[in-house]
Design brief:
The protein has 146 residues and is mainly α. α3 runs antiparallel to α4.
């Protein structure tokens, strides 16, 4: 069984999640917990991606974007939208890792099964943190609307 295409796709998804967390942290650096937890989770996603094979460098390229300004919603709504997008990305990464996990079990590839289990746990941490931040941010952001 050739797991390489699924493994590469899962690795790419984890790297995209890492980059998204890094971008979130940089974009919303004024929120200390978003900044520090986001960077910490990005590092952990990088480690998970590397367990699927050689990954891109641990310091990702800066993503295009900028801090909230005149043409963007207030900071709370911008943060809420960024958290929502990242939660969807995390779910996609979770599915990609699940596909690798199932294939690795069928192929009896213990090393890849363990890598997939570890990645699943990391994505679970990211997802739980994102959901918590969405629950905290949504009422505040919506209450601030005119």
């Amino acid at each position: 069984m050739n797991l390489n295409p699924a493994r590469e796709h899962a690795k790419d998804s984890l790297e995209d999640l890492r980059d998204g967390l890094h971008h979130l942290a940089e974009r919303h650096a004024a929120e200390a917990d978003v900044y520090h937890v986001g960077l910490g989770l990005a590092d952990r996603c990088n480690d998970a991606a590397r367990s699927f094979g050689d990954g891109t460098p641990a310091t990702p390229e800066p993503q295009p974007g900028h801090a909230p300004g005149e043409n963007e919603p207030p900071a709370g709504l911008a943060l809420l939208e960024d958290l929502r997008k990242l939660a969807v990305e995390a779910h996609g990464a979770q599915i990609d890792v699940l596909i690798v996990h199932q294939g690795a079990m069928a192929a009896r590839d213990q090393e890849m099964v363990m890598a997939a289990k570890a990645a699943t746990a990391e994505i679970g941490r990211v997802d739980k943190w994102l959901q918590t931040r969405i629950k905290e941010t949504a009422p505040q952001a919506l209450a601030a609307l005119p």
